[in-house]
Design a protein that fits this description.
Elements lengths: L14 H9 L6 E2 L10 H16 L1 H23 L6 E4 L2 H11 L7 E5 L8 H4 L7 E5 L8 H7 L4 E7 L11 H11 L2 E5 L11 H4 L3 E5 L11 E5 L44 H14 L4 H21 L3 E2 L12 E4 L8 H10 L2 E2 L1 E3 L2 E4 L7 H16 L1
The structure holds pyridoxal-5'-phosphate (PLP).
């Protein structure tokens, strides 16, 4: 399986593969909001239930089994991303992963971090919170819903230490040119941080090959996992320089050798975990990732592109203005659109009516936002388009 030369990821996969994926999804309604919060495959639900049933009656065994399962899942995540398992730590969400970086990075007063201006608050607040340490935040405005690399380069100066960007912008669906940005960071000697939550799961991303030093994600969007669990990849070359912000019994090399003095910190990213993790959620996340690993990353991406092309084309044919970049290298699973002539205050009414028709979508930054997953099919897209047509007519 190779990528096409005319555009990225334009391959077809046998529909039976997707039917099998879809048959594992339990939801009765049509969910078009995977950029918001996602349903889980059956295996992830079972993982939580199995863990809870054991934890309720045999907590010792559930806890021990949970730690060994967490190490297994850690290895699977690392393998999937093409990084080392010592470079992965669990977090509760993207914010926690980014905060390990923002608070632990060896800043000096006068340093700055460059971020796009339209980022989700998760990738803005941790940086603005550094103001008290004398760290400046340099924001790069979007131009026509895109973030030109030369605008990012213009924002970099001699005291810039880091670039932090979302893999996919939550509002517009713009996919960042991570390869180009990785090269830019390397040229200027910057630490490269990525908030991956809006693409990870359906769009390929190999942090080491892209020059990414830290990548954070929560599990509950395109990963089809539970809320309250996520992970951080941190390049091992930076482990000694990024100071753990919450050191607890689990941060050390031998957690079960209890000592009063602080023993050596774990020689892995476990040093950032601090205390007890949630084994049920980690186990469910592992199952969601095993689900996502059945088709290849390129197959998922091709599927997403095919579905979103149909959706964007259908919306445009009905007169909606699709603002999401759709060109090669920039498209994603998010389609944001305006309804010409419809005041923005009416959008929530549209979403409510869609819910009444059994369809969940969302509204962000002044646009309706639709985000189908790869287990959806063309009939789902057509059902959504039909519902929108009815809203336009009424
Ligand atoms: C780009 C981006 N980052 C992060 C988040 C969520 O952050 P957290 O995982 O910390 O809740 C969202 C949620 O919409 C998002 O769109």
């Amino acid at each position: 399986m190779s990528q096409s030369t005319t555009g990225d990821f334009s391959l077809e996969t046998d529909e039976t593969v997707w039917q099998a994926m879809r048959s594992e999804m339990l939801l009765p309604n049509l969910h078009m909001d995977h950029a918001g919060v996602s349903p889980w495959p059956d295996r992830s639900l079972k993982a939580v239930v199995d863990w809870a049933e054991q934890a309720a009656v045999d907590p010792f065994q559930a806890s021990m089994a949970g730690y060994s399962r967490a190490d297994q899942v850690r290895g699977e995540i690392a393998d999937w991303l093409g990084v080392g398992n010592l470079e992965i730590c669990y977090t509760r969400n993207t914010t926690e992963g980014l905060t390990h970086i923002s608070e632990g990075f060896p800043w000096q007063a006068g340093d700055n971090v460059v971020v796009p201006a339209d980022e989700y608050p998760t990738n803005l607040h941790p940086w603005h919170h550094l103001r008290s340490k004398g760290v400046e935040v340099r924001e790069v405005p979007s131009v026509n819903h895109r973030i030109p690399i030369d605008a990012i380069e213009k924002a970099i100066n001699s005291t810039t230490r880091m670039l932090s960007i979302s893999f996919v912008q939550y509002g517009t669906g713009l996919r960042a040119d991570l390869a180009g940005l990785g090269k830019l960071c390397s040229k200027h000697g910057l630490f490269f941080t990525v908030d991956a939550i809006q693409g990870l799961g359906v769009l390929p991303i190999r942090p080491r090959e892209l020059g990414i030093h830290a990548l954070a994600s929560g599990g509950s969007k395109w990963l089809l996992g539970p809320q309250g669990v996520g992970f951080l990849f941190l390049d091992q070359a930076w482990r000694e320089q990024v100071r753990p912000i919450s050191v607890g019994w689990h941060s050390v090399e031998e957690p079960f050798r209890f000592r009063h003095e602080l023993p050596p910190l774990a020689a892995s990213s476990k040093r950032y975990e601090g205390g007890t993790i949630n084994p049920g959620l980690v186990s469910a996340l592992g199952q969601s990732i095993s689900f996502l690993r059945q088709p290849s990353p390129v197959q998922w991406a091709s599927r997403i592109r095919m579905l979103t092309e149909r959706l964007a084309g259908g919306l445009q044919a009905m007169g909606l203005a699709v603002i999401s970049p759709r060109e090669d290298g920039a498209w994603s699973g998010i389609i944001a659109a305006k309804v010409p002539g419809l005041p923005e205050v009416e959008y929530s009414g549209w979403l409510k009516k869609l819910r009444e028709m059994g369809i969940t979508a969302n509204y962000r930054m002044g646009n309706l936002r639709f985000s189908p997953h790869g287990y959806n099919n063309l009939a789902d897209i057509d059902r959504l388009l039909g519902a929108i047509q009815r809203l336009i007519e009424n």
